[in-house]
């Protein structure tokens, strides 16, 4: 009789061990999934910060209003910023870094560039998508 109780107790311990192991594996997979998401979001936030920094840097550059397209490299973050004249008085500033882009619309007023306060966008603001690409 005592022998049967020992076997059933051992069986219960093994069952608890298996269930605990399965539970830990599930928690480990979930933690790995969350860690991957956090890393992806962190990289996206870093890329967005670089883009915004490059856009602001490009906004402050002395651009010529004579050339249709001109580009400069934002060396500190390895981003590219381009200014595209779309018409006589309308321009588009494009910042590009690691597959992401930001755009900012502006106008030419009395020979000076003025970027619109609410003219920035994280999607192409033009109907012709080709004009939003870095040359």
From TrEMBL:
Domain of life: Bacteria
Pfam families, per the entry: DUF2509 (PF10713)
Name listed for the protein in its UniProt record: DUF2509 family protein
Originating species: Citrobacter meridianamericanus
Record InterPro entries: DUF2509 (IPR019652)
